[in-house]
Amino acid sequence: MTEEYASLNFIEQIIADDLAAGFDPKKLRFRFPPEPNGYLHIGHAASICLNFGLGEQHNAPVNLRFDDTNPSKEEQEYVDAIKHDIQWLGFEWAQECYSSDYFQQMYDWAVQLIKEGKAYVDEQSAAAMAEQKGTPTTPGVASPFRDRSVEENLDLFERMKQGEFEQGSYVLRAKIDMASPNMLMRDPLLYRIVRKAHHRTGTEWCIYPMYDWAHGESDYIEQVSHSLCTLEFKMHRELYDWFLDQIYDPARLRPKQREFARRNLSYTVMSKRKLLELVQSKTVSGWDDPRMPTISGLRRRGYTPESIRKFSDLSGISKRDSVTDVSLLEYCIREDLNKTATRVMAVLDPVKLVITNYPTGKTEVLKAENNPEDPNSGTHDLPFSGELYIEREDFKEEAGSKYFRLTLGNEVRLKSAYIIKGESVVKDAEGNITEIHCTADLDSKSGSGTEASTRKVKGTIHWVSIQHAIKAEVREYDRLFLDEAPDSHEDKNFMEFVNPDSLKIIKEAYLEPFLKEATLDDKFQFQRLGYFTLDKDSTSDSLVFNKTVGLRDSWAKQQPAPSQPNQPTKQPQNQGGGQGQGQRLAINEIQKIAKKYTNLSGDKLAAARADIAKLAEEVTYEELEPLFNTAAKKVGTRIGVMIALGVLLNKGQQLNSAIEAFIAAGMADGNELLVEEASLLKSK
């Protein structure tokens, strides 16, 4: 097996095997088939990146097909949103298709099935049909209408089409096998009556094909070579093939359905029905609320196409459902914005600072570096004066030796400006500090080249000039749910886990004037605070900024320092949608074993440690680092990560600040097993 072949995920390997067996590469065609009954979410990004990535990899067309067979839930709004999201992610489709384009052809094929004795009209209630289906271990019972004559079935089906019957009174069923071990093969529905106008065909039709009937036949019409679905459709594959068998022409290409695991994300829900409930209950402001896992919500929050595609790449394509920690998604956007976001200063909780020896009325324009990661990013003007706002938490009258911000009698540097020393404070009647008075070393201006400018002080704080600052609203977002898997509790509704503090609105934040010209596409790092982007609610007179993500994971009690900015990151390149299957499964398996680690002892504990160490041979540092921020209560996971990290260090992984901080946090923990593993690494 070549190295290139071994790096393929299993879907890519299926295609590679087909090509090696003689499949004509010119006949490769893929599709992304969303139902327009909601907005796309981060889970859909896996399928988007997989299908369009395969198209790019093989120079093959990829159709965007809307499986619009249920007018009671589908709307043009969703069609438009889906198209926008895919284009924003950077993909182009070959053809824009709709299952509704094929309604007449599917109807004609259904008539053909009736004529061949393979379909019949049933008028039982849904409950009666469900009861007759039997159980996985007992065969079903045939419908009393299963043996209607062809003529009667044709007449009833035509009358269904003409609108003679009420919704729910008749259905068309395929006549397959009521004793099949696959419940889906027990005479499934082909058509039902739906008395609602379709967003494209209006009232032309009142009978609509079921998804299983429409899906495979649409693939066949479009000559899709590989129909890639999520795992819940694996049991449907037999039915998919049976339907194709009934209409297949050997002179045409026959689609092949294969399945991969859907992507789930911690601290959120992925069901469109549940996301719709969040919208309809006004728990969120809409489908594009920045707390939502929808692509439009992530875009509004400030996520970039590159970060979402990177997340899809690192998450990989696997054969088993799993939950990806949201910290990996946050890692991807931090990595991207660190390289591209413009550095600016903003103060969210202001307190006034007066430089008493700075000339009264004087202002000067300093130069602020746009992005230290990009030497070509340039600078922008930053006005400075003797009266500033700083963050209230950046000052204490008295502080311990580990507090490196402004205190009375101690010095800090104002970012891009002067070194100042705290002298006194002014308080109101309640004892709250209203002003901080300080003096500046006026020879210490950053970049001036003076000896004083090179003087080292322990802290640097950000600021804005009161005279020049612009006022803005800032919206800080936290995770929408407090529980890691809010919809996994049988005895509780997922809505019970909604985080009441997921949105904090700061009405009077003060920003440097450079931000007055910000656009919706601009990305900023508010220095020392996080990454922010302009919200669509902004007007020229009232700016609103959304917090995309903090500089570190605020949910982790131990907060390791970020990786060295100049350290190159070696990420696997895999346009087809993910890492090699083995790598992604290895990190998942480590997490799975580690969750129970602290409940083990003796031989079982030793075996678990050995299993983690063995799996770690297949894990990359880029996969492991996001887990450094695992919450303190998940000590088992942190132990597993520590064991895996030891394997990587033995293989030559270089120490960096993130690793050192993670090890230090482990040694300071109260869990003996974690301390022991951290101590082993400390001694290396």
Please provide a written account of the structure.
It is a single chain. This protein is an alpha/beta fold and 684 residues long. 31% of the residues lie in helices and 20% in strands. It is built from 19 helices and 29 strands. A 7-stranded mixed β-sheet has the order 12-27-28-29-25-26-13, covered by helices on one side. Strands 23-20-21-22-14-17-24 form a 7-stranded mixed β-sheet, with no helix packed on it. Strands 4-5-6-7 form a 4-stranded antiparallel β-sheet. The longest helix is centred in the C-terminal third of the chain and has 16 residues. The radius of gyration is 30 Å and the shape is elongated. The N terminus is likely disordered.
Give me some keywords for this one.
684 residues; 29 strands; 19 helices; alpha/beta; seven-stranded mixed β-sheet; 20% strand; disordered N terminus
Q: Name the helicity range.
A: 25-40%
Radius of gyration: 30 Å
Mean pLDDT: 91
Question: Assembly type of the shown chains?
Answer: single chain
Approximately what portion of the residues adopt beta-strand conformation? 15-25%
Structural class: alpha/beta
Strand order of the largest sheet: 12-27-28-29-25-26-13
What's the story with the biggest beta sheet? 7 strands, mixed
First and last CA, distance = 36 Å
Number of strands: 29
Q: Pick out the low-confidence regions.
A: 1-6, 557-584
Tell me the number of helical segments per DSSP (H or I, 4 or more residues long). Answer: 19
Shape: elongated
